[in-house]
Amino acid sequence: MRLVIATYNIQYALGQDGRYDIGRIADTVADADIILFQEVTRNWARNDGEDQVAELAERLNRYVVFGSTFDSDASTLVGGRVVNRRRTFGNMIASRWPILSSRTQLLPKHALPETMDVQRCVVEGICQTPVGPVRAYSVHLSHISPGQRLPQVEVLMRFIGDAATDALPADGPFPEAWASDHIDVPLPAGAILGGDFNCTPDGAEYAMVCGELDPHRGRLRRADQMVDTFVAAGHDPFIASSFYTKASGYKIDHLLATPDLAGVVVRSWIGDSIASDHYPVFVELDWAGVTV
Length: 292
What we know:
- Helix content is 17%, strand content 35%.
- Strands 3-6-2-1-16-15 form a 6-stranded mixed beta sheet.
- It is built from 7 helices and 16 strands.
- α1 crosses α2 (52-60) and α3 (146-161) packs parallel to α5 (204-210).
- The protein has helices at residues 22-28, 52-60, 146-161, 163-166, 204-210, 229-232, 259-262; strands spanning 2-9, 34-42, 63-73, 76-78, 81-83, 86-95, 99-107, 120-129, 132-140, 191-196, 212-214, 218-220, 227-228, 253-257, 265-270, 281-286.
């Protein structure tokens, strides 16, 4: 059984040619089984109020969950009736198979009066795949500085680490009134974390997730840290780029995995579509009959 996972910061479908086109965003990652999106919007004037969550779900024919970081009023009055709408901006997970449960964790944001930054989050989805459930995480860290990102990574890693006990939507015996709506949700050990980290592999933020880089011993990954699947596939992340400049060494979009999933990496690659200012990063896994 092979599974393709992608991470893609879609910049609200604004391409490098200045056009908004959610259709080509969907086309770019249509072959992936699980897609981790960032910068997905609903009800923004700049792209005509498009509901990109619904659009991507429809075009890709996927199960989806969405977690909003930016949430403000976009309501209108029509004939004296309130039409409730929220202007949202966040992360999304799309899966070929059901997403049994989901959580959204807001990440720390320190106000910078002279610099624009926005609230960030990580979205978790427990995806039921043919080889068993997998925890998937879509994250977007601050674009400002390591000082903004490091506290976010600390919360991110605690959120992922605590999932083994905390990720169920409800705990304990269900009362009778809940019984008909109960869904048995597993807590799989295998997890994949993807997103726009806004840092390269030599950053302190990356080291908090994958281990510090020692000049003599290489990457010193702790038992509770993750593996870069791009590296597991045999690539050098320091000479790759996932941003529109294509400048060597500017890979800031990463797909990381727990060691059990990193051990079944077949290949990884970076797409070349101009549909966003970022390029999607893909990884292909092959369990060869091994259950997660």
